[in-house]
């Protein structure tokens, strides 16, 4: 069991870009989003100071596993495989995966019609495993961040993108339906949890804080602010 001492600031990782959960506000240059603000509320609730460390998503689970990070909040899906090496808080957002193609694409209709196609997704994410297990594309191209992944679809380097529902939906609302469209179902429903090194005493504290924030309306206010609907 790895335990961390909480003298000084916690190091809390987040993804560099995973809107609307975390992204750099172009005006302030600071990271903001649902994850950033819910973590701020949790930290205040449990009385800890922290440094937020935006990093490539694929480094977060290894960083928690080696206890170089004290926590990670990055739209991170709770999976059995990850639970072998890190601990999770209770789920705080219900997500899933979607398939995105160019609006003029007539050939890709769902996960079954990816045969012979090239699909993009992000390194180290649950979409990589999902594609391996459920689809038969010619190639899966992996990108370090979602900007590069979406850009590849727009410039024709890939035929489709498979990625997390809220991020895909946020991209569609930015680009417009005449450019890109979602096809198929919501795949692989998965809650997001906050990650910790195994055995961290923060897990119970964070779960208690999440319950308080749900009960006192803070969670609902932030949810509405970032997703436009009530939880
Ligand atoms: N939810 C996905 C995962 O956990 C993607 C997370 C992300 O890219 N920040 O693998």
Give the secondary structure arrangement, pairings included.
Blueprint: E1 10-15, E2 23-24, E3 31-32, H1 34-46, E4 50-55, H2 60-65, E5 71-72, H3 80-83, E6 86-88, E7 93-102, E8 118-122, H4 126-134, E9 139-143, H5 146-154, E10 160-164, H6 165-175, E11 180-192, E12 195-197, H7 202-215, H8 218-227
Parallel strand pairs: 1-4, 1-5, 8-9, 8-10
Antiparallel strand pairs: 2-3, 6-12, 7-10, 7-11
Helix pairs in contact: 1-7, 1-8
Bound molecules: glutamine (GLN).
Residues 15, 18, 57, 74-77, 122, 125-126, 164 line the site of glutamine.
Task: Please describe the structure with a list of short key phrases separated by commas or semicolons.
binds glutamine; five-stranded mixed β-sheet; globular; three-stranded parallel β-sheet; D-Maltodextrin-Binding Protein, domain 2
Detailed description of the structure:
A hairpin with a 6-residue loop joins strand 2 and strand 3 (31-32). This protein is globular. It starts with 9 loop residues before the first strand and ends with a helix. It contains eight helices and twelve strands. The protein folds into two domains: 10-92 and 193-227, 3-Layer(aba) Sandwich (D-Maltodextrin-Binding Protein, domain 2); 95-189, D-Maltodextrin-Binding Protein, domain 2. The chain has 231 residues and is of the alpha/beta class. Helices cover 33% and strands 27% of the residues. Bound molecules: glutamine (GLN). Residues 15, 18, 57, 74-77, 122, 125-126, 164 line the site of glutamine.
């Amino acid at each position: 069991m790895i335990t961390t001492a909480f003298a000084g600031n916690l190091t809390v990782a987040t993804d560099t870009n995973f809107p609307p959960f975390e992204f750099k506000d172009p005006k302030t240059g600071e990271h903001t989003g649902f994850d950033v603000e819910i973590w701020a509320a949790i930290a205040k609730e449990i009385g800890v100071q922290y440094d937020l460390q935006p990093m490539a998503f694929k480094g977060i689970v290894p960083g928690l596993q080696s206890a170089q990070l004290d926590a990670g909040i990055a739209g991170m899906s709770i999976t059995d495989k990850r639970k072998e090496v890190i601990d999770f808080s209770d789920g705080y957002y219900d997500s899933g995966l979607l398939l995105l193609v160019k609006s003029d694409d007539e050939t890709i209709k769902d996960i079954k019609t990816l045969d012979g196609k090239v699909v993009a997704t992000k390194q180290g994410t649950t979409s990589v495993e999902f594609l391996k297990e459920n689809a038969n594309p010619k190639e899966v191209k992996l990108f370090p961040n979602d900007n590069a992944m979406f850009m590849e679809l727009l410039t024709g380097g890939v035929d489709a993108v498979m990625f997390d529902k809220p991020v895909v939906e946020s991209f569609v609302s930015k680009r417009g339906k005449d450019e890109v469209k979602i096809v198929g179902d919501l795949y692989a429903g998965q809650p997001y949890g906050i990650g910790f090194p195994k055995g961290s005493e923060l897990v119970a504290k964070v779960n208690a804080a999440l319950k308080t924030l749900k009960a006192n309306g803070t969670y609902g206010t932030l949810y509405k602010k970032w997703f436009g609907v009530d939880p």
